[in-house]
């Protein structure tokens, strides 16, 4: 029996961002699937990273969920080799450093994101971000 192929980490990340956004807007897998013309089981596979999301489908998902396509790649760990610093770069390359986020139980992250998205006052959202960053900085060794 052949071993099961493991999902690509980027596909898993994109899927988790899809699930996060879908739950933030209060949409079910079934409703998203209906709008995409796929079954809710297919949406589940996308969210787990078991099935890759094609470019045109990702663009459609972004439209349905009212986010830019780049949203799905935010905070993704970049596994690309270190760039050659002697190479010329055009405007499309992003030379910012990548970072790995610590693992937070997804239920807690989703609950926080849902609650945060319901806050309409931008000043309060900014204060919450500042508070969380301050608390997190106090946790560092």
TrEMBL record:
HTH cro/C1-type domain sequence ranges: 18-72
Pfam families per record: HTH_3
One annotated GO molecular function: DNA binding
Domain of life from the UniProt record: Bacteria
Source organism (scientific name): Acuticoccus sediminis
InterPro entries documented for this protein: Cro/C1-type_HTH, Lambda_DNA-bd_dom_sf, Rad_response_metalloprotease
Protein name (database record): Transcriptional regulator
PROSITE patterns in the record: HTH_CROC1 (PS50943)
Signal sequence segment: none
């Amino acid at each position: 029996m052949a071993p099961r192929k493991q999902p690509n980490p980027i596909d898993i990340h994109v899927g988790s961002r899809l699930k996060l956004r879908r739950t933030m807007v209060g949409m079910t897998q079934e409703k998203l699937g209906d709008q995409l013309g796929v079954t809710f089981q297919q949406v589940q596979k996308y969210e787990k990273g078991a099935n890759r999301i094609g470019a045109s489908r990702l663009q459609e998902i972004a439209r349905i969920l009212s986010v830019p396509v780049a949203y799905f790649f935010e905070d993704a760990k970049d596994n690309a080799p270190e760039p050659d610093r002697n190479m010329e770069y055009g405007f499309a390359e992003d030379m910012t450093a990548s970072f790995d986020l610590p693992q937070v139980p997804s239920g807690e992250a989703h609950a926080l994101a849902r609650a945060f998205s319901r806050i309409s006052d931008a000043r309060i959202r900014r204060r919450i971000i500042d508070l969380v960053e301050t608390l997190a900085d106090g946790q560092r060794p």
